[in-house]
Amino acid sequence: MLEIEVKARADHQQAKELLTDMGAHFIGVQHHSDTYFNAPHRDFGNTDEALRIRSVDGRSVMTYKGKKLDTVSKTREEFETDVDGGNTRSILLALGFYESGVVKKIREVFKYEDMTICLDSVEGLGEFMEVEIGAESDIETHKKQIFSFLENFGIGEEDSIRTSYLEMVLEKE
Amino acid sequence: MLEIEVKARADHQQAKELLTDMGAHFIGVQHHSDTYFNAPHRDFGNTDEALRIRSVDGRSVMTYKGKKLDTVSKTREEFETDVDGGNTRSILLALGFYESGVVKKIREVFKYEDMTICLDSVEGLGEFMEVEIGAESDIETHKKQIFSFLENFGIGEEDSIRTSYLEMVLEKE
Question: What is the mean pLDDT of the segment spanning A134-149?
Fold first, then answer.
């Protein structure tokens, strides 16, 4: 599965008004605590991969993200599975993986057409908007669709942030 | 969590009669297809660790087992979590892990006191009995308890098999 995703800074109050006007469907609010792991055999900081256990309102999800596949979006391969968070952490640590950082955020999720729009308030970083399409192929078409949607919010390719929240949090520290 | 476990060859018909006579509680039958993975950064064949995705009657479980902690039983640290089997396989492969073998078996599970007794019919290997106690400590006490229980079946320390089903399957191939 490919995750075709664009992220940019966005004022949430303004964005919410626009989303409502467009008829976007509000899905819900999630509280994320994301623990990122690095590998013993290669440095994800160099390979641009990510391995994470997300705790989200009582559930735990393990996600692997491959390296980014293009230069303006955050498109990448992604696999995820529900897990027991504590035991999965123990498995990763036993295998030699180690924690690289924690990102906490509140995410408000909207749906519009086949896009998922996330308004993220990230602890220590501020307000962001992520627009995502899950697809098996056709990166270019989906990317155009996302950027055309983002024009409504005054967001262009030059505003796209490919740095991850984790990298931003680590840079700040 | 420690898994204190002893495995030996055992005739199932005879074992089942004895278990019934002792008043052991029959739990159920499970069909296991276990895919084992090896790591890119250390050889589990040398370190005596195991990482497995078990498919059991529609569920998938990922399990890590640490190296064995004594010389006559299969006692070791163990962590496990329910997972999406296909996506977890994809995550492991993307991280550089690779499949080392598959073990298929039918397991009949019984409970007696705090012990779990498994009668395993392993594809290509034959009939085995595994007795297991999960505990946080006291390996020696629990091991004595298991071997004292196994005396009823004519099984002694000299019959204990510490070789894993995977190793036995790979040796046979």
Answer: 89
Which strand (E) or helix (H) includes residue A55? strand A50-56
CA distance B95 to chain A (A): 8
Output the CA–CA distances (angstroms, integers) from residue A16 to A118, A155, A160, in the order listed. Answer: 10, 15, 19
- At residue B23, the 3 state secondary structure works out as coil
Alpha-carbon Rg for chain B in angstroms: 16
Domain ranges for chain A: 2-172
Q: How does DSSP classify residue B153? A: T
- Report pLDDT for B134: 85
Taking the C-alpha atoms of residue A160 and residue A8, their distance in angstroms, rounded to an integer, is: 5
| High-pLDDT (> 90) share of chain A, % | 81
Total CB pairs under 8 A between chain A and B: 69
Nearest CA in chain B to A81: B84
DSSP per residue, A110-160 = EEETTEEEEEEEETTTEEEEEEEEEESS-HHHHHHHHHHHHHTTT--GGG-
At A24 the pLDDT is 97
Interface of B with A (CB under 8 A): 39-42, 49, 51, 62, 64, 66, 77, 79-84, 87-88, 90-91, 94-96
Q: Among A39, A82, A87, whose Cβ lies nearest the Cβ of B95?
A: A39
Superfamily of structural domain B2-172 = Hypothetical Protein Pfu-838710-001 (2.40.320.10)
Question: B72 or B64: which carries more pLDDT confidence?
Answer: B64
What is the pTM for the complete model shown? 0.85
| CB of B117 closer than 8 Å to CB of B105 | no
Q: Residue A164 and residue A153: Cα distance in Å, rounded? A: 21
List the single best residue of B81, B83, B88 to mutate versus A (max A Cβ within 10 A). B81
Residue A72 has pLDDT above 90, yes or no: no
A18-32, A113-127, B56-70, B100-114: which range is least confident on average? B56-70
**Under 8 Å between Cβ of B18 and B26:** no
- Concerning whether B36 is annotated as a catalytic residue, the answer is yes
Residue B28 has a pLDDT of: 96
